[in-house]
Design brief:
Blueprint (H helix, E strand, L loop, with lengths): L5 H22 L6 E5 L3 H13 L3 E6 L2 H9 L4 E4 L5 H9 L3 E6 L4 H9 L1 E9 L21 E4 L7 H13 L9 E5 L4 H8 L6 E4 L3
Parallel strand pairs: 1-2, 1-4, 2-3, 4-5, 5-6, 7-8
Amino acid sequence: RPDMPLDRAALIGCGVMTGVGAVIHTAKVEPGSTVAVIGCGGVGLSCINGAAIAGASRVIAVDMVPSKLDLARKFGATDVVNAKEVNAIEAVKELTGGGVHYSFEAIGLKVTAEQAFGMLRNGGTATVIGMIPPGHMVSLHGPDFLFEKKIQGSFMGSNRFRVDMPRFIEFYLQGKLHLDDMVSSRIRLEDINDAMAALNTGEVARNIIVFD
C-alpha cells in the first residue's frame, strides 16, 4: 500500500515475519502468558514485539549486550536478563516463580536451545528459531518430558505471506509493530563491507541498504 515506507517494509519479509510469526503462528502465545526470548537481534526483537502484541503479561529479554537489552524494552520487554552476568535459566525462573509458558531461541546455538527448554515451567513450550549449525546435537533432560514440556522448531514463523504481510503492515501503521526502532542505520551499497564487519560486534539490529 502506498502509505507504507518501503525501507520499513523491507524488514518484514524475513526477520520480522520470522519472529512475530513464531509467536503468533508456531507457538500460539496466549494472552496473559509469560515469555522469554533468548537473543535480541532483529528476529529476537520481533519475537518480543510479537509477544507484546499477543498480550503476554511478562516478556523477558535475554542477551549479553546491554545496548540490545535496552532496545528490547522499546519492543515490549518487561524484564531483561544479561546472560553475561547471571545464570539465564535461574534468573528467568526467579522472575516468573518457576519458569515461562513460552520460550524462544533466536540465536542458533546448541547451548541457547538447551537454555530455552530449561526456562520452561511445567507444560511450557520452547520454540527454536535460530539456525543451529549442522552436526550440533541438542541435549535435554529426559525426565522433563514427564512434565509435558515441549520443544519445537519454526521456519519463517510458520508464515502465511498473503495474509501476514498486509496484517503486519497494518500493525506498523497502527503503531503496534516497532519497525522504526529496529533500523540501526541506513547505508549505501558501497558501505556493505563495513556493515558486514559490524555484524560481528553483536551491536546491530538491522542495517538497511538504500538505493538512490
